[in-house]
Structure formats: structure tokens, C-alpha cells
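notes to self, project folder thing:

trying the whole complex as one job this time. last attempt i did each chain seperately and stitching them together was a nightmare. two parts in total, labels are on each line so i dont mix them up again. if this works i'll redo the older ones the same way
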Amino acid sequence: MILYLLKRLAVLVASTAVAGVAVFAFMALLPGDPAEIALGVNATPEAVAALRERFGTDRPPLSQFADWFGGLIQGDFGTSYVTSSPIGPQIGDRLGVTAVLVLGGMVIALLIAVPAGTFAAVHHRNPLGVTISAASQVGIAIPAFLAGILLVFVFAVKAQALPSGGYVPIAEDPRAWLLGLLLPWLSLGLVQGAVLTRYVRSAVLDVMREDYLRTARAKGRGRMGALWRHGLRNASIPVVTVLGLQLATLLVGAVVVERVFVIPGLGDLLLNGVAGRDLLLVQGVVMVLVVAVLLINFVVDVTYAVLDPRLR
Amino acid sequence: MRGRVNAGLIAGAVLVGIVVLAALVSFVWTPHDPTLVDASNKLREPGGGYLLGADKFGRDTFSQLMVGARTTLYVGIVAVGIAALIGTPLGVIAGMTPRGWLAELIMRVNDLVFAFPALLLAVMLGAVYGAGTLTAMIAIGVATVPAFARVARAATMQVMVTDYILAARAAGRRRAAIAVRHVLPNIGSMLIVQASVSFAIAILAEAALSFLGFGTRPPIPSWGRMLQESQELLFSTPRLALWPGLAIALAVLGFNLLGDGLRDYLDPKLRRIRAER
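result (full assembly):
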């Protein structure tokens, strides 16, 4: 297990480094000189040169990269060329908001998918089980931002029960914070729940055909009892994989949902950065999101090994 | 032996057929010019030649939906095309030499690209080259490459252990010939299924990108941007959000059902397993 963990960790570190090179190289293609853009067309060559020196963009790309990546490792994302403010703290603030959004969405997805998927599997021959499968197929076809717009229409426009957007920090007003996040959570959770339901259903169906489950039933356990005791752990292995992939999807979905509900998360920061041509900011946010995806994959692999010792 | 045609396959084919038909017809006819700004028709209610009404610029919603179908299919075809053309050969190579260093390299790079979702790639591309339909298509296509490579690799590995591959190798056929003559035809059905599923994902991605302003530029109609434009009017004119939303959902549902149906139809083994359940 330790050897497996170390191996997997090495892959994670290597992937992060390569991703860093890729992001940096990609953004280095950006036409235009940040110093010239910052000073405008009337700047004197001396002023541009001075600013270039201050930004460090006059140095060779390799040394720029070493600086940027070295800073990242220590949590320093550099200083924005556009706003002259440090990028790290901004990303830190926004990361918390996005994380709460994504985790809330995941919890709702699980709360929907585990019961619904198990039910659909156990009752796969009767109409209600089939209806759940069909409903999940429809849910998959709805993008999170569309779900968001629909939810706003139902709960904010028609029922006027929940706010249509905006974000209140939890420290300011916990009640407003919760009410404001309900619809964004639901937007992400309903759609991902539909996707997950299908996987839970198929995983539980697979387990239900196993001999050990028949043995448990033969020993006198009820259908749900046998499933609870012997089935769910085995069914959880494929589901955990999908869950990991889903978390990555949710992270991206959050970027769009933040736009729908005007939530100041990472996605909002990223899009503002692009609009303001804030190169370093975009680079930093993209890197954080990519590392988050890599980390999720790492955790999935390790969880996999814990759940199923045969895979180690 | 082929499986039976199932209800999902038919429903999927019908939905996809409607989208394709709308897109094709839009080349020769739309009820109105979808880009014509006409203040006198501002937020016009449905009826009187405007089947679904008009938006805040007086543009006919139905005509926009028709041309939007064209945009959706265009982005989907190019993106899936890019993914299939790059991903399939990589997957076949990795699958034919599963223990080689090349296969290892391909799959590691694959994993890395997988960490860059289409949306992130599109935003980065947009930041560098300016956002538009082209950058959206390339980003979605590149982000879909890993899915194709994985499916092609898994399918190739299954084909490689069959007797006919052994026979071809015994007959002295070269690897490239085996790949083209024996592997590709036999993994084709898996790739078609993957293409259909990827198409659905591409539609979702295009809609999200256009919604964010990183996809198709105005004035070319796009379902995602129609949704984005409708959001501010959600309180007064919700139908403007309803129609493009419905179009996106039905198109995605169609391609997903088509993919699932094709999988059952083209792979009777899988169907039999399902029937047992």
C-alpha cells in the first residue's frame, strides 16, 4: 500500500509540473507585451523598459517560468500586471466560495443518486424503477446553467421564495448565505445527481447478480439487509471513480453557475481575468483548477485501493 | 449478428433527425432573417408569422433556433472530428503495443490532457487568440481526445487477442496493415457509439461557452447565447429562455439516446447481459 501510494504520489507531482509548463507555455503565446499594454500607446520606450524589468518580462522565458512555478509551490501566485495587487490572496478567497459551491452540489447529487439509483436497481423490473432511469436520462441532458435558470424562474420569479443571485459571506449573515447558495447547489446537484443515479443503478445491479449476495439472502437476510451489509461496499467501487470524474465536472460547472448566480468564486475571477487581459491571474486560476482536478484523480485512485485491496 | 432496434434508438434518431433537418432547412429557408434587428417587433408575442415570438431586438426566435441548430451541429461535427482523428490512432497504437514505452507515453499525456476540461481550454484559447466558434471547437475537440483514445485503446486490446489477428500476424502482415485492415473495422462500432456520446457533451460545452461569451460570436445565432441574452428578461419574458433551453436539452437527449441505442444495437453481447438483468 505504501509503495502504491508513493508511486501514485510521484505521478501526481510529475503531472503537476508538466501541467505548469503547459499552462505557462500556452499563456506565453499571448500576443502583446504586458508592459506595453499596461502603459498604453503613448508610453516612452524607457518607461516600457522599466516596467518590463519590474514585471520580470525582460528575462528569458525559462527564468520567468522558474520564478512563477517556484512561487506557486510556496503559494505565491505573483503580482497582477493589471491591478498591481497580489494574486494569491484573491485566489484564496475565491477558492473557498467555489469549494463550498462544489461540495454542496456533490452532497445533493449523492443524496439524490444513492437512494434513487439503489431503488431503480432493486425495482428494475417495475414501472417506478424504469421511470427513475428515464428521468435520469433527461436530467443528464440539462446543463447546470440551464437548470440554474429554470430554478431561478420557479423559485425566484414565480414563488419569490429564494434570491435569484448574489452572495453573502457566512460571517455576515449565515441565513442569507444559506438561502443564496440553495439554488446554485441545486443547479449543480440535480444534474450531477442524474448522472450519478445511472452509475449507482448499474453498480447495484451488478452486485445484485453476485453469488455472495444470493448466499446472504439464503442465510436469511432480507433483500435490503443483504444489500446493505454485503452489496454497497462492492457497488461503491465503480461509483467512487465516477464521483471523482463528477467532481472535476462540477468544478467546471461551478464556473458557469457562478456566472448565472453572480457568485464571486474562482470562475468569476477567471472570466474577469480574461476580460481584463490579466495574464498572470488567468494563469494562476487555471493552474489551481487543473491541480484540483489532478488532486481529485489522485484521491480517487487511493480511495479505490483502500476499497478494493486487489487493485493495489 | 446485430441486435434489435430499440425504442431508445428510435427516439434518439428522431430527435437528432429533427435537429439535422432544422439545420439543413435553415440554409435555404427560415421564417424571418434570424439576425434582422427590428425595433417594431421588440419582444413580440408568439403568433402572426412569429411562431415563438421575437426577442428584445425583434429577432424571430424560431428562425434563431433553426440557425442555432446549424451552429450546434457545426461545432459538434468539427470537435468530435478532431477528437476522433487524433484520439483513434493514438488509442490504436497504445492498444496494439500495450507494454511499449510509446503506449505508456500516450496514456500519460492522455491523463494530463484529461485534467484540462474543455471549458478551461476554451477560456485559455480565447484569452490568447480571441474567443469564437473556432477556438471553442478546437478546445472541445482537444478535450475530447482522451475519451476517444481510451475507448480505442480498450477496444483494440480486445481485438488484438482474437484468432484472426494471430492469423494475420502469422501470415506476415505488417502492423500498419493489421491496424487498418483488421483493427479499425472491428472497433468501428465502439467509436461510433463514442462519437454520439461525445457529440452530446460537445453540445453541452458549446452551449456553456456561448453562454459565457467564449463561444459563437454575435450575430450568428447560438442556443447558448440565446439563453444568456434571455436571462435578464427571465422575470418579464421567460419564454425566451424556454425555447433555447428546450432545444439544448432535446438535442443532448437525442445524441445520448442514439449512443446508448447504437451500443445495444451494434453489440448484441452487451444487450444480452442487459436483458438478463
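what i see at first glance: Chain A has a mean pLDDT of 81.
need to look closer tmrw
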